[in-house]
Predict the structure.
Amino acid sequence: MTELKQRHDFVLFFDVLDGNPNGDPDAGNLPRIDAETGHGLVTDVSLKRKVRNFVLLTQEGKPGLDIFVKEKAVLNQRIADAYKGLGIDLSEKPSRAEDGKKRNKPGEAQGSEVEKGRAWMCKTFFDVRTFGAVMSTGPNAGQVRGPMQLTFARSVDPIVSQEHSITRMAVATEAEAEKQGGDNRTMGRKNTVPYGLYRAHGFVSPHLAKQTGFGTADLEMLFQAFTHMFELDRSAARGLMSMRKVVVFKHGSELGNAPAHALFDRVHADRKQRDKPARSFSDYTVSVDKAGLPQGIEVLELVG
């Protein structure tokens, strides 16, 4: 895999129509919101989950593109599989004297074994190589700081959360049917955002990429996932979600040619008519100020 030698900073724009983009389990699964400003929020964890799902669905079975954190996975077992793949028996004393004369804790790696386990996990799992992971539990493969980091997404304008009553024309048990007196209807609630355009920021560090083995092919996969991740992750609760634009600032060096915030300030999302609520992406103009860009900065615009 080709080594990544340029820093990348990027801006994601995605929207939601009549859906809940990221429910808050601590608030009855209401859309996440900044209580002081009314702006909608989507966590970085939610966005990373969609990237993982895309890679899992499209690259399943391909070497180096497995997913560590996936549904129903037993993480400690997956870490143990690393040491099996390396031929390291964690029930016996370490094979290298410098790692200790005896095993401090049966079934747990120590010394240089941990570094080998960490390297195996990075090589095997796309999400470990990209986002990093805490793998110090159970057999212990240490911790990895990922080269790609995402912020929370925040809506460009304040959002309105609407609550809807919904009806199910059936009941789950006979006891419920008797209680309803033959009227097999149950009521529920559903919360949606009529429309919201969200913006998130991300960063890719070549220095951390060297530590995990994240290369140019992984970066291409990441941006492919961003552009398609909502297409393969539909849900009635989330309504219509679409990735609208990905603006990438590619630096000419590992350290970078400008501060990330200065580049992000060049990306604008402006509502065309302030006197009426936005209900589609066409109600906004998204632009990038490319005048006087710092030397060595290349702008790439993906999607839309």
Q: What stands out?
A: The mean pLDDT is 93. Residues 8-160+190-302 form one domain. DSSP finds eight helices and 14 strands in the chain. The first strand starts at residue 8 and ends at 19.
